[in-house]
Fold this protein.
Amino acid sequence: MRRLLTRGAVIVACMAVLATVIGQEPKEEEGTKDVKAFMRTKLVHSQRVLEGLTLEDFDAIARHAQQMALLSQDASWNVLETQEYYERSADFRRSVQELKLAAQKKNLDGAALAYMGVTLKCIECHRYLRQVQHVEAPAP
Ligand code: HEC
């Protein structure tokens, strides 16, 4: 049931992404596209959190933090099976949890700070992904 709800949320979020993102790459394998679409929903939720922070809408902040936590627990999240990816995912989940707790306590400063923590985790994991891809890429 919870999984169903998650899937529903992902689909809704995907539709939102499709509505806002221009210029999707047309030629991609289905699998890759699915993961990308799934992963892109993080961006939507993080934008919704920022919206919530600016409007002081704590319910929205907590809701979208929760959605990010659920995404990170989905099987589709496990793109890499390295220790580092696992740790970065755990760090991300911790930050998202902090964000949700601050929102539930209606602590705007705490939520703003936690949001920065979440954003840093986005950037750090993506930097790691680029490093891994760089290593794996065939020599020119
Ligand atoms: C623990 C690692 C990790 C964290 C943390 C993480 N991501 Fe990702 N993200 C991935 C992986 C893996 C992919 C899919 C593979 C790829 O695109 O290289 C991805 C893909 C994406 C994509 C799609 C990229 C594309 O090429 O279309 C976006 C956008 C994105 N992430 C945004 C975010 C945002 C925003 C956050 C923070 C709220 C975040 N990510 C946090 C691992 C992570």
